[in-house]
Amino acid sequence: MQRLLRSPLLHFLVGGMVLFAVVHGRSPTVRANGAEIAPVVITAAEIEQLRRDYRRDTGIDPSPADEAALVERAVEGELLFREALARGLDEDRSIRNWLIEQMRSLDPDGAGNDDELHAQARALGLDRTDLVVRRILVQKMRLLAARANEQPPADEVLRSYYEEHAADYGIAERVTLWHVFSPNPSSQSAADLLAELRAGAVAPAQAVQRSETFAAPPYLRAQSPADLARRFGAEFSEQLSTARAGEWSGPIASPYGWHLVWVEQRIPRETPPLEDVRGQLTERWLDEQRKLRLQDTLRALKTRYPLRIESAAWRERISS
Amino acid sequence: MNTTSPRHRSTIRLAGLSCLLAASLGAVPSSATPPPWQRTEIRQPCANADPFRQPFFGETHIHTAFSSDAVFAGTREEPRGAYSFAKGDAIGLAPYDALGQPTRTAQLRRPLDFAAVTDHAEQFGEILICLTPGLPAYDSSECVSARNQLQTSPPLLPSILPPIPVIQFLLGYGALVPPERFDWCGEDGVECLAQASLVWDETRAAAEQHYDRSAGCSFTTFVGYEWSGQPNGNNLHRNVIFRNEVVPELPTSYMEEYTVQGLWAALRSQCLEGLPGCDALTIPHNPNASGGLMFAPVGEGGAPITAEEAALRSGIEPIVEMNQHKGDSECRTGVGGSTDEECGFEKLNRLQLFSPVSNPNQTFPPLNYVRNAAKQGLVEEQRMGVNPFKIGFIGSTDGHNATPGSTEEADFGDFGHLGLRDHATPVFMVQRVTPAGIEATPGGLAVIWAEENSRDALFAAMRRREVYGTSGTRPILRFFAGREAGLRCGDPNFVEKAYAGGVPMGAEIGPVRGSRSPRFGVLAFRDVGTPGAPGAPLQRLQIVKGWVDTAGESHEKVFEVAGAATDASVNTDTCETSGAGFDSLCSVWHDPEFDASQRAFYYARLLENPTCRWSTYLCNAQGIDCDSPASVPAEWAECCSPLVAKTIQERAWSSPIWYRPEGLARLTGAIRQRGAAGRVLSLNLRTGAGGSINPAAQDLTLALRDDDEVYSVTIPAGTMQAVRPGVYRWNDPSGSIGGIRSIRLEQRAGATRLRLRTVPLALPGTDFVDHFMEVSLRAGTTEIVAVPLWRSKGGRLQTRS
After folding, report:
1. Is this complex scored with an ipTM above 0.90?
2. Residues of B with CB below 8 A from A9's CB?
3. B425-429, long-range: CB within 8 Å, 24+ apart, which pairs?
4. Contact flag A174-B110 (C-beta cutoff 8 Å)
5. Closest Cα of chain A to B76: distance in Å?
6. Fewest CB within 10 A of the end CB: N or C in chain A?
């Protein structure tokens, strides 16, 4: 212990702790029994520190709106930290391990078992002031709040959620088509061939034997506009949207040349049955619920803890 | 959540599979065509499926805020954001303002078809602990150092490296051997692993949210992660890609297994063999910074690789990410016998990813380059009969902005790929030490030839290596080899005929034309581009051959097979292009130097006309004029470095086709309906010389598979009787072993002939419709696999290839 007290690292650490306590200007003690709750305080000095950090990281002077956002984040962090302590999340093993490691690093040759070192750390107040502990607790609280009592959506909930978002899952109109390809440069040979096909009423399956090799096969099933754009270019896809089924259209240009197209079938836009998108929808819904639940928790915490925030910008934002 | 527990598994069959739609492939391929792979998940088949396969563009290597090196560079988008981006949505990029709004946004000019988010798994837990969402952490000394090192100016000077523990943390990489987790993770890292499961759950949930299981098949995700082993600074990274949503509880990272053999063993025990429905493969990247170790022909413990290890390796690691933002790893001029001038393409001139020294004249290990590794694979195969480096090629980005597929040269200067590391100020793009800096590239794309855009289809194609890589653009490239009789450029049925007469990229062939060269069909189309901006015209198609001679020496040669250099050029001041090129290129080629006794590989390389390199776009936008050096600000000097190319010839590399002298020379087979008695299977195959099947001492396993197992039999060692030296036979009218009526195996002049005929069997999985069906024969480490086209005709399904 003698050596520990001489350790420069300890001086540094305790110094930092004192500074932290001074900056925060309050006791780290939390009473969450409802009788007496210490207010959440963010002092003008702390806010100045937030502004300095922001300036250093971005090179930009924070506007009042920026300051309000920075303070809001700090308030949220403090509320989550306080709530985590109130719920005893600091009894967690990772925090205990971290505190023991901290004590060991202060005095690598020192005696003391884990329990003693843990007690020493708490006596020094490290469990309330250590920034890593704080981060762990805030993060744990955030996750806990977001996922508390998480349940997969009931079927009727998912069904109405799907109705609300059906547009995001619709399958576009698609075409099944035959095409005859004639390479660049001239469209004339394609036009001549078109006249021939029309005059001779050539069946598509025979007509495509007149095609040159193309990147896509002569018969293409259920092509969405995106599929067509990917294979023939966006302009081709656009043009094909007006081509009538059961006749030869063209020549339609692509970056490769000219195409005579026989639209065999247009498959109308459809909304897939819920079962086909259940996984997609469920994960989206759960994600949204987590965000909402976290917001609810923060809202509730703001009413539970008295707030004393020395930022006009923040107060203005809250009241607006 | 329904994705945290494995879904109920069942194999669904394509709708209408059982109806015998006799779709003649010359005319209308039916959507009821069974694919040559099993469906392992619940989803709709795709309405636009094509049995002759379509190219799907995507990538298998992207980082998000779940990677420590991304989040500490200011990236905030998580896997869900990355997938939205891949599908075409705009997302935010760092820096973010105080309100949490991004100050930059990025959007793809055209969406991807698939993507796999692969965050560094080593610090899934540590990041969550360290990270305050929204703001970089101010926690521990590691976090503080990380932040200070990476985020703020002044930039790192090329001669200053952060301390190793900081690199270790902020890169999420394992550089220490053996690795260590940080103190706060508790004993055996249990605390961090507990947190890691939350990250892993979220990774899986994101993949589910964005995977289109409907018949629209608009987008596919894969659950994946990166195993980031970098022992002593040598890059051995692997992306692990899972076939479906059935995945292990936690990823196996470098922290758990710090050798790649250990990783493979863990994947086998926790996935392939230990978890029903689970399947995975690994994809290495950046062999160019591996110190020659990524493709070193050694096994566990550094001993020469054995045939068993080689077979395991090539099964679980079928492809390599050959091109990405930290350079191209195809080949390097002057290294390992490469004289090919195109090997100068987009090279990383560093021995390790975090080496401060960039120097093209250093000594680079030959096995840092995939072409040399592929040649080494032939040498190993010559030695022990199995090729450990039978590896197909893809590209990806490895970007750390959660922006998969962001490979446009014109956009890269604006978007970057490493958050604030390359965009705290614009000049960081050209100035920062590796892996950013002017040496970086936007990275490439992976192109998968698959029947449809579903996980099973894409995964099966990756496993059979029917994939190619591009340097970021989207040209179409097909490559076949075989007898290919009558194959002709211009034929509208070129692809169908090429499949019917040969094999596609990624496969292997034997002496299919005796001592004459197989024919190679190669077909390319230019990138279709974006509205109003078609891709660059094509310039040349080449075939790269590697082979090994009887003395065990490897060689390589590049053949020009179509196209030619034209008057095409780029004005590097305006980036306008001019001059001629080709919309498409095609050739049916044979190897004029073919020697049927030499094992070889062949791959196609497609070169586009030159365009501006990303750095030229950026430097031009900054008004840098290299013609008046005095006007160039010092911090932009890299723009004018003679070592930096002003233009780029975007390109594509097909996966190789391997020629094996002992490979399959001929395969015919038929399944005939014999009325009510059942179906009779007959098979007749012949290999080239050099095989080593011994039915007296080895079990012989023969199987036919499409999406079902159609037939499978194992003939125990010693069952077949030697009737004279080299000739084995087994006849059994009762068909007691797998219904075999007769089987005859003959070895003559080293070649193997096998004839098999069954008694009438039920064979209920037979689909009498034209389709691809795999035939495999295994004995010891010998493996003969072919996936020929079977045609249906009058109560008969048959193949001749």
Report:
1. no
2. none
3. B425/B153, B426/B618, B426/B622, B427/B635, B427/B636, B428/B155, B429/B615, B429/B618
4. no
5. 16
6. C
